[in-house]
Amino acid sequence: MFKTEVSKSEYLELIKNTNHRKALAKLRSSNHNLRINSENLRICQYCSSHEIENEIHFLLYCNHYQNIRKQLTNDIKVKYAGFESLNLGEQDKINNVDTYVCKKLGYFVYEALQIRNEYTNGQIHNKFQPIVL
After folding, report:
1. Measured between alpha carbons, how far is 44 from 49 in angstroms, rounded to an integer?
2. Which long-range contacts (CB under 8 A, 24 or more apart) does 75-82 make?
3. pTM across the whole model
4. What are the residue boundaries of the structural domains of the chain, listed by start?
5. CB atoms within 10 A of CB 106
6. Residues 57-94: b if buried by 16+ CB within 10 A, e if exposed
7. Of 27, 50, 55, 93, which sits 20 to 30 A from 14 (CA to CA)?
């Protein structure tokens, strides 16, 4: 999805936590290490879906983040009872202008990226551990 006007995005003002704001800005500007650029290595390694690890998969579908995603959606459903019945375009309109949703989304992206980095670092660290027989 593309911006249609040149202006500062509202979420930059709405999300006060610097780490959360940076994480969401990096995701929105493709300044991340999701596996969408390496053509032969694009499949998500964090779940068994065999889907390309792009921003949509990361935000909405990857099972690796389902616990914190469930908390995010539960929190949003408290404020917007019909949120699950909205289509993706209508949901996007809510998260672009609502302070509560922007803050929750910033938290989710930050935490999910932390989980992803811990998992990645653990995999690399464990890869070089000596085998004890």
Report:
1. 7
2. 75/104, 76/100, 76/101, 76/104
3. 0.63
4. 13-122
5. 24
6. bbbebbebbeebbeebeebbeeebeebeeeeeeebeeb
7. 55
